[in-house]
Amino acid sequence: MKINRVIKPVPLPGQHKAALRPELRVHNFTKIFVTALSAFTMLCLPAMAQENPTGIRIGIAAPLSGGFAPLGNQLVDGARVAATAKNAELIVVDDRCDAEGGKAAAESFIAGNVQIATGFLCSEALEAALPLLNQRNIPVITSGVSDPTLTEKRSATPLPVFRLTTGLDKETLATGSFLGSLWRSQPFAVIDDGTIEGRERASHVLASLKEQQLQPVFTDTYRPGLENQNALVARLRRAGATHVYVGGERDDIAAIGASAATLKYPLVIAGGSVLNAAPGTQPLSADTLMIAPLKPQDLSTAKPAVDAINQAGKLPEAYSVIGFATIELAEAAIRQATDQKQPLIDILRDNSFETSLGTLKFDGNGMRTDNPNRLQRYDGTQFISAD
């Protein structure tokens, strides 16, 4: 026998039946949609705020392609670590170390509404970017261009460019001060390699020493690039010079030291920041002196940056620490300008800032007011502070 089971519908309570009326179904759907949308918005807002809760937008231009890419990547690595720590938005652009890349970087920064532009390891890129950024009153913190560009030199008023690196003037000023104290009673010589930079280094140091009433026993222009400098060392010995400042490259300074050892002539050799160049075939002589800034990662003030960069899985190299400090400076200036309701350019010009590179303050031309150059001595493997 086939049984057909009939299930009778159970009448709904009045309030539920009313909900199914056509005019109320539309109302209820709208209410549910609005409630869901509100909940979704509330969930999204914290996530959006976490992306850039401070409203700080910083641009960084660096060579991320080409021969200078390793340095550019170091700079950006450090900058990204600092930007994350400061909850700042970072707009990164490859300036390729050329004019076209610099112009493109400036255009990207303007389109991205950055408050400050940073980076620029090469003068060509900075030169091309400056006119566009200056039109929008966007200040620049440059990490690698120590001397004013042509655009800056031609400007009737100082452009808002602030430099983390110091140039030849401060290096040779510090050199004259250190050597004037160390070599006051020593017979010294000042020589150069005949290049524009070499002559400039030597002439500035010599002028500083003469201002201190110190006269060299020998000056000369030597022939650079030789495997040995026996003839030069022989001339130094005949002149009686036991100490020599060399306005030349690391390889030449190494060759002079090797020749002095070969001729068994004790000679104290000093040079500038060019001694930071990559080692050549000949090692430097132990106790060679260098007057230059300490490596950023070796500064006592850089420890927090070094630790943060390490924790991010990156190497705390020179330019990564500089990149970190650049963002520290930019973020602090933007925050101070916002809090004090002052123009950002004025804040940068009138205040000092604590960074991984130490306390930074700029003069009216955007140059650091301190002199970071220090006396260092080569211990056979590396330069160490000799202050």
UniProtKB/TrEMBL annotation:
TM segment ranges: none
Keywords on record: Signal
Keyword Signal among record annotations: yes
Leucine-binding protein domain residues: 56-379
InterPro entries: Leu-bd, Peripla_BP_I
Listed Gene3D superfamilies: 3.40.50.2300
Role noted for this protein: Component of an amino-acid transport system.
Annotated family: Belongs to the leucine-binding protein family.
Protein name as catalogued: Periplasmic binding family protein
